[in-house]
Amino acid sequence: MLLAFAVWCIFCETLFRRQTPANDETFLQAVRRLASPNGDIVLAYVDSAYLDMAENFFKTSLKPHRIRNVLFVASDRRCCRKLRQRHGVACYVLCEDTQASEHTTYGESGFISKMNYRTDVILEAIEHGYTVLHTDTDMVYVKNPLKHINCSRGCDLAILVERGMTHNAGFVYVRPTERGISLYRQMRNLSIVEPTMDDQNQLNKAIIRMKKSRLFNYVRLPNSSFSSGIVYFEEGERMFANDNPSSDIVVIHNNWIVSKEAKIYRFKEHLMWLVDENGYYSKLSAKYLTYDNPLEFKNRTSTLAEERLALRNAFAIGQILRRVVILPSFHCGENERNNMHCALNSFYRIYDFDAAFGRRYREHMFLHNQMVPKAITRSLSDIFRIVSSASKKAIRRDPNKYRQKVQQLHAKSAAGPTSVEIKQWFGKSTEAVLRFDHLYGAFHAFASESEQAAFDNLIQRGFVDATYRQKP
Question: Where is each Nucleotide-diphospho-sugar transferase domain found (predicted)?
């Protein structure tokens, strides 16, 4: 392992100091060309597995604030080529990593390997006199952070702080001082001695050592402005866009949640996702359906069960009508959140949900995204209610909470309508968005037994229980 890392260090040294077929300049030439007049450079590591995350970061954070002193550093050519072609951004190919297209999560060996690249990149820049803002791409800059980081003369480092005393290696502003350079040299040495240690643990261990020197001067950025995922989303009780808005926020880190799929979903519910891959938002020919979860039942278990059945019904109706399901919000039902509505990731594992349903669904906030055409958002049907014995039973549990003018359609069976009835009622609907007030008891079965069996299997694969942070 030590020999392999030594070879990697020599390889890195070579890549930093020469041009390659993938780059028309050296790393330092790129940094020199892009750095601001005062020597600031923003460095962001990216690979093909997280290309869409990097694109979203560019669209939500760099472009709006006109932050141009940015260099993406990639571990594969494909990633750099696409960033250059699509957005005209500067990208330096550090190497060709065989794991570049593999999704990795915090703590995995592949993740550690990728993150350790960053230490060498940052160290190379600061050793040559540049001040580096190193940033992850699963972030949104609400404001330009370079204008809000108070770390000037005499300051070695400014850093985003996680819950407690943990320093986040994903957002670090490090100046080319003797102590700033020493910190990152210690991190590199730790990666050699303990190759299974990721860069965040290296950073925290190195800071503990450096703090013993009274000369080391660093700034812990305030959580109220530079927020981790647990601070902004969880402690801030923000499930959807516009929940508890704050004018103090500068940077939001979408961490403390497992899997890339869950990160993207959470960004979407907060209107922080601007990647329109394959017309995800903009497709004019797409048809959708929406519904609500207006009722709370006798207890949390009953409410979750009814809402689970309603979600199943939504996907069944969507499959029959070839419409995409726009998710409702769900009742949280937890002590401090009794009056809140929760997002899908509070109950289901997004990784499995995406694998099963893919493009069959959209986030709750979908119609509010700026990329959805007005031709879609303005093409709304009347509001329908499917009436069956099951739906009547659900509504009777709390009739005072249910007051809405709707068009009622009565199922022939007490258990709910079949796929044949659904087609008869809605098969010729031309509106882009078909609206239901609820879907309690709104579907019974497909006419085809084989289609029913396949659908049941799909639901079983997609509805995997999880906690908000996506732990099983």
Answer: 67-267
Could you give the CA distance from residue 278 to residue 414 in angstroms, rounded to a whole number?
A: 41
Provide the whole-model pTM. 0.91
pLDDT along the chain (472 residues), means of 10: 41 52 87 98 96 98 98 95 96 76 52 71 98 98 98 94 88 98 96 90 95 90 97 97 97 97 99 98 99 90 95 99 99 67 97 98 99 99 93 66 79 95 98 98 97 98 97 74
**Residues 6 or more apart whose Cβ sits within 8 Å of residue 208:** none
CA nearest 73: which of 13, 126, 118, 138?
Answer: 118
Distance from C-alpha of 94 to C-alpha of 159, rounded to nearest angstrom: 25
Report the alpha-carbon distance of residue 42 to residue 39 in Å, rounded.
Answer: 10
Q: For residue 135, what are the β-bridge partners? A: 171
- Angle of CA points 246, 249, 255, to nearest 5°: 115
What span, in angstroms and rounded, lies between the C-alpha atoms of 371 and 171? Answer: 29
C-alpha 244/C-alpha 250 separation (Å) is 15
Residues in the chain: 472
Distance CA 440, CA 27 (A): 59
Distance CA 18, CA 9 (A): 15
